[in-house]
Amino acid sequence: MRLTIIKLVSIFFLFGCTTLFGQNQEMSKIPFSTPIMGVKTNLLYDLTSTINLGVEFKVSPRYTLETSVNYNPWTFGGDKKLKHLLVQPELRYWLCEPFNGHFFGLHGIYGIYNIGGIDLPLVGKQKLEDTRYQGDMFGAGLSYGYQWYLSPRWNLEATLGVGYVHLNYKAYQCKTCGQELYRKHKNYLGPTKVGLSLIYIIK
């Protein structure tokens, strides 16, 4: 039984340096030296009209430091808004080497927001038809992700994180102005990061 477990662990770390979908052949085309920096955009955030930019630096043979900034200043039809500024720094540990394969991360969270006219799961299940929430949030979480090699200058990354967020907010009577109704705070446990990012590699 013990020997079987050791074999399974060995197989997992072996696949940590390659992909299960034929990336072995592609990896032979990658130069020996690993990238030192990547600039990325989260395609999922792009779908919500959120301006976002991430930068990731190699800091050691197994570690990188990433910081992403997400900004949404827009007001949509019907005074719907998901205005926010969110910063998420993350320290990543790579099972094989930076910008290649599996990684685990420890990330921080800080943001400010002004949201109205839409569902806001972090505050409540009700639809915010006539209420606006404005405040800030901070927290931390753990993440797992994977990067695929596309070409000498391009990678694709998928990542998912869970953690804790503390939210402070004020509720207002209408979506654009209105009298302050109350002030509250909320502690949230759950998904804190999700991404499908296109990365430009700098060597």
Secondary structure blueprint with pairings:
Elements: H1 2-15, H2 23-27, E1 37-42, H3 43-46, E2 51-58, E3 63-72, E4 75-76, E5 80-94, E6 101-116, E7 119-120, E8 124-127, E9 132-151, E10 154-172, E11 180-202
Antiparallel strand pairs: 1-2, 1-11, 2-3, 3-5, 4-5, 5-6, 6-9, 7-8, 9-10, 10-11
Task: Please explain how this structure is put together.
The chain is mainly beta and 203 residues long. The protein has a single domain (35-200), classed as Porin. It is built from three helices and eleven strands, in the order H-H-E-H-E-E-E-E-E-E-E-E-E-E. It has helices at residues 2-15, 23-27, 43-46; strands spanning 37-42, 51-58, 63-72, 75-76, 80-94, 101-116, 119-120, 124-127, 132-151, 154-172, 180-202. The strands form two sheets. An eight-stranded antiparallel β-barrel has the order 1-2-3-5-6-9-10-11. Strand 2 and strand 3 form a beta hairpin. It is elongated. The chain starts with a helix and ends with a strand. Residues 1-16 and 18-32 have low confidence and may be disordered. This is DUF3575 domain-containing protein. InterPro entries: Autotransporte_beta_dom_sf (IPR036709), DUF3575 (IPR021958). It comes from Bacteroides reticulotermitis.
